[in-house]
Fold this sequence. Notes:
This protein is of the alpha/beta class. The chain has helices at about 1-25, 45-55, 70-85, 95-105, 125-130, 155-160, 165-175, 180-185, 210-220, 235-240, 240-259; strands spanning about 30-35, 60-65, 90-95, 110-115, 150, 180, 200-205, 225-230.
Amino acid sequence: MSSLFTLLAAASALALGVSATATKAHAADVKSVVLVHGGFVDGSGWQGVYDVLKKDGYDVTIVQNPTTSLADDVAVTKRAIAAAPGQVVLVGHSYGGVVVSEAGTDPKVAAVVYITAFAPDAGESVSSLIANPAPGAPVPPILPPVDGFLFLDKAKFAASFAADVKPSLASFMAYSQVPWGVAALDGKVTAPAWKAKPAWYMVATEDKMIPPEAQRAMAKRAGATMAEAKGSHAIYVSQPKAVAEFIEKAAKGVKTAAQ
């Protein structure tokens, strides 16, 4: 009988050891990042951020949203979250902030990160958030919709969206715009993730698409850990290292809280 007790004790110790290891792994397993682009662009703009995060050991998924409707974009993003290993830090730029606000309630999401992005409350949309700009605020050069889709004026794209991006690349971004569906702008958030998950927000102080004061107000309302950087709306393209480092701080902040 003593050998059986010894075996049971050994098995119990092993199970406890495995459990302790699993707990430690869980506390340190937020190494997946899902990046969500905004309107008028696609996921390729994240390449510089992707390169830094991959070099630093993160598993990175870049979502390619159709930007046809909020429901469609949330569905695509949730599939990306489901496919990512372990817990996820979910990152949104611009309109991507609306998508992560809606998709970020997924149980796998450990934190949401906003990069000069919209962070709507329940019942809000991009359309409602931009409806009454403050006096003197820059007005994005959005052209009238065609067949339910929007574009930015190509001649004004660089100054409004990508003022600190290399001119040749800013020009390419202007001429390779992705049609942004009016239905996506009108999509209302139901239960914003920032009310249930830790949030981080990077304010781009030279943004001509979303006024910095509006960014600060949304970050404050979300209770987000906020940082500011001098950059345009396309700061994720022009300053990928700074953006990647901010995302990594969020990931490490989640780990610290979990421990």
